[in-house]
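Thread: quick sanity check before group meeting

JM: Hey all, I'm pulling together slides for Thursday and realized we never actually wrote out the predicted structure for the chain we discussed last week. Dropping the sequence here so it's in one place. If anyone has concerns about the input, flag it before I start.
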Amino acid sequence: MGKKSIFLVEDDLSLINGLSFAVSKQGYGIDIARTILEAEEMWADGKYDLVILDVSLPDGSGFDLCRRIRRTSKAPVMFLTAADEETDIIMGLDIGGDDYITKPFKLAVFLSRINALLRRSDNFSQADTELNSHQIRVQRLKGQVYKNGELIDLTTSEYRLLCLFMENPDVILSPEQILGRLWDCDENYIDNNSLTVYIRRLRTKIEDDPGEPRRIVTVRRMGYKWNSAD
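JM (edit): ok, ran it. Output follows.
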């Protein structure tokens, strides 16, 4: 397997220098863009294993850049930003971000989160290439989900949540297990209330009647499970 390649979009030169040095010492390749325009030009030519985005850039928002990246790629996206409002964090995760680290941060934590994202990405690519249940079909090599044969549009977080449920049919997963498996919640940047929002949004896309879910069912006081019974 070749060297993992990281794409950093950040305009703070001192931070760029420090992170570039640390990431390179970990054995990763890194390309850097300091504006959205520069990032879009580089993205058109490159394939990266991980994208790290600042939110506030000189010519626009990292959120908008993430949305554009998500149109063509399932690569993990990490937001690295001083914007620490809960609404910003939830938005970043909801539009397709996989992690959200607020400045200032400890370098060791940052590197640990990078390693975790790349490891989980490898695990997804090595898992079964297709999942099927309840007329829901996941094609992992393409990162696509079909309901009754029709392609449905999921955010990255919704996609990973669906895969987790379908990989564990009829197993009750507590909120803590779900958050830990998908977001490495050693920091409280996403909570049970946010998870409830994700579950509700996923149900609106995959359930025939989201008000009476039959695929993702709530187990009172315990968590959620994927119901494999017809």
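AS: nice. The chain has a mean pLDDT of 86. The chain has eight helices and 13 strands.
JM: adding both to the slides.
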